[in-house]
Amino acid sequence: MSNITATPNTATPITASTPIVLTIAGSDSGGGAGIQADIKAISATGCYACSVITAITAQNTLGVSAIFPIPLEYVEKQLDAVFTDLNVVAVKVGMLADCDIIKIVAAKIKQYQPAFLVVDPVMIATSGDLLLQESAISILKSELLPLADLITPNLPEGAALIGSEVPDNEADMLKMITGLRQLGSKAILLKGGHLEHDENSNDLLIFPEDVHHLTAKRIQTRNTHGTGCTLSSAIASYLAQGHDLLRAVQLGKQYISQAIAHADELDIGKGHGPVHHFFSGHADVS
């Protein structure tokens, strides 16, 4: 197992040859997570963002009060509209809401075959609200996760995917590796952010044959809304720019660390506020 420390760095300006990244996710009316966070992160890290909205949420920094899944026909029309016109290099998938939406997204990924697929298996919001129907988890595991180059579960999501207890220490995280590998994705980024008693935020990047340990200093702030969406979108952006998976994850972790570090510069809402996606005007990372 290798140890990698994420340190802040900077990136390339947007040009005419900017790679295109598609986010397929739910909309957050509060602007801190979901499609809105994805578009901000993809743009800030140097790619062009397009989107397919799978659900509309009534949401703010205090929680989620309603979820309305987009009718399946209109999810499919959005997917076809984007893929038949835009040269999508990487796809990030977030909130999918129900079984039928998961199935159509998986079918369209197979049909159009983008170069990279990053799946953030969104099930639980920062506020604790359930964002994925429990009946849909098995469909997610059978239909979509095996297509992914990377999945990015946090500890509760990873535990839900493999039917284990939620880890409360890094030793328990390591015990999850075998089960997570059996999900069929090419790689898994198991995020340790929920281990709040640890001084650092430690993640495991799990490949079929080895595991990389990525660490960054834990930043004390309550403004962490949308961190998972932001990280997975940044990784998809760096993959689209030609970085290999390990480097894309390193850069994504550097970016989210800085976005969290600058989160308190914003004053948004009364609950868990968003991270600062544009912390340096144009957030360059290289």
From TrEMBL:
Pathway involvement? Cofactor biosynthesis; thiamine diphosphate biosynthesis
Q: Which Gene3D superfamilies match?
A: 3.40.1190.20
Q: Which InterPro entries match?
A: HMP/HMP-P_kinase_dom (IPR004399), PM/HMP-P_kinase-1 (IPR013749), Ribokinase-like (IPR029056)
Report the domain of life of the source organism.
Answer: Bacteria
Pyridoxamine kinase/Phosphomethylpyrimidine kinase domain: residues covered? 28-276
GO molecular function, a single term:
hydroxymethylpyrimidine kinase activity
> Could you name the Gene Ontology cellular component terms for this entry?
cytosol
Q: Which CDD domains match?
A: HMPP_kinase (cd01169)
* Keywords per UniProt: ATP-binding, Kinase, Nucleotide-binding, Transferase
What Enzyme Commission number(s) apply to this enzyme? Answer: 2.7.1.49
Annotated GO biological process: thiamine biosynthetic process; thiamine diphosphate biosynthetic process
Q: Which PANTHER family match?
A: HYDROXYMETHYLPYRIMIDINE_PHOSPHOMETHYLPYRIMIDINE KINASE THI20-RELATED, PHOSPHOMETHYLPYRIMIDINE KINASE
Q: What is this protein called?
A: hydroxymethylpyrimidine kinase
What is the organism of origin for this protein?
Neptunomonas antarctica
